[in-house]
Design a protein that fits this description.
Strands 1, 2, 3, 4, 5, 6, 7, 8 and 13 form a 9-stranded mixed beta sheet that branches. With 314 residues, the protein is of the alpha+beta class. The mean pLDDT is 96. The chain is globular. It has helices at residues 56-65, 87-102, 108-123, 129-136, 184-197, 199-221, 224-240, 246-255, 280-289, and strands at 2-13, 24-39, 44-45, 48-49, 71-77, 139-143, 150-156, 159-166, 172-177, 261-265, 272-277, 293-297, 305-309. Strand 7 and strand 8 form a beta hairpin. It has 2 domains: 2-167, Ribosomal Protein S5, domain 2 (2-Layer Sandwich), CATH 3.30.230; 173-297, Alpha-Beta Plaits (2-Layer Sandwich). It has 9 helices and 13 strands. It binds (R)-mevalonate. (R)-mevalonate (MEV) is lined by residues 11, 15-16, 18-19, 126-127, 129-130, 184, 188, 266-267. (R)-mevalonate binds at residues 11, 15-16, 18-19, 126-127, 129-130, 184, 188, 266-267.
């Protein structure tokens, strides 16, 4: 059996705009998904025969990374599915990682590339931010330009993403999970449609790119006030792009005045928001009072890693 785990993530700035090639900044979190691969007589996922429709990411990972005999895949997750915290990327990265490890080819850049192909295929359209963050861990800055600490460069069609290691700032975040499951693919498609037909939406995408740059500078200076202000602006723009939700606004509003700032994180449409604060207890209470599930996350976790490798006795 070969077992790998991979982390979820929060996007601090830049979701959706990154699909169009703008910059984005994500931090790996201390919630993980583990996938174990065992040689078998048929293909199965968590004890059930593998079906493309039910096991879209696992099955696409198999097409991308496996050409050996049939395998059983067992997954276990600490990340709620559709929560905006990168569960699809973490399941994909851990599966691809376990499959490559079983072939003796565990290598981070290959995992990141294959996992991006899987997400793109399943979602219809994607950027590499989630899969590269789950692979590398720590902090990841994606940008159209090559900067210091370049990890790898990924391209699709006419878009290039340069993936960089980013030092993880010493900041405390509380996630507020709405409990509303939101699939990423349709939200990405909705933004695409709006941007194709509306100039304001296109300029909003560019503004998000600028926010990422300003946010990275503010983080370097340790200017939490500015980071929080930019988070709040980023949230407003995501609402204008049509990926907000009243439950997210309620949680963001509950954090006003007791935090530096808050915004939805990930695809939106439900899922989760994040709040930057020095007082995780007070913010957690406010999120719970506003009908959200507070999750205090630690940022900067390790990327994909092999957990154990044993020779299967079957
Ligand atoms: C989802 O976590 C992030 C999005 O920007 C989609 C993507 O980058 O593939 C909404």
């Amino acid at each position: 059996m070969t077992r790998c785990s991979a982390p979820g993530k929060i996007i601090l700035f830049g979701e959706h705009a990154v699909v169009f090639g703008e910059s984005a900044l994500a931090l790996a979190i201390d919630l993980r998904i583990t996938s174990a691969v065992t040689k078998s007589t048929g293909y199965s996922v968590n004890g059930h025969p593998m079906k493309k429709r039910h096991h879209a990411y696992v099955s696409a990972s198999l097409d991308e990374a496996w050409n050996g005999p049939p395998i059983d895949i067992e997954t276990s997750s600490e990340i709620p599915s559709g929560s905006g915290l990168g569960s699809s990327a973490a399941v994909t990265v851990s599966c691809v990682g376990a499959m490559l490890a079983a072939k003796g080819k565990f290598e981070l850049e290959s995992i990141a590339r294959m996992a991006f192909e899987v997400e793109s295929r399943v979602q219809g359209r994607a950027s590499p931010i989630d899969t590269s963050t789950s692979t590398h861990g720590h902090g990841v800055l994606v940008s159209p330009e090559k900067l210091d600490n370049l990890l790898w460069r990924i391209e699709k069609g006419n878009i290039f993403w340069n993936i960089h290691h980013c030092e993880v700032p010493k900041l405390s975040f509380v996630v507020g999970y709405t409990g509303i499951h939101a699939a990423t693919g349709p939200l990405v498609a909705k933004v695409r449609k709006l941007v194709d037909s509306d100039e304001k939406a296109a300029s909003n995408i560019s503004r998000i790119g600028e926010i990422v740059g300003e946010g990275v500078d503010a983080l370097k200076r340790g200017d939490k006030q500015k980071v929080g202000k930019l988070m709040t602006e980023n949230h407003r723009i995501l609402n204008e792009l049509g990926v907000g939700h009243s439950a997210l606004d309620k949680l963001v509003e509950a954090c006003r005045g007791i935090s530096y700032g808050a915004k939805l994180t990930g695809a939106g449409g439900g899922g989760s928001m994040i709040c930057l604060t020095d007082d995780v207890v007070q913010v957690s209470k406010a999120i719970a009072n506003a009908d959200g599930e507070p999750i205090v996350v630690r940022v900067g976790s390790d990327g994909v890693r092999m957990e154990t490798t044993e020779v299967s006795r079957r």
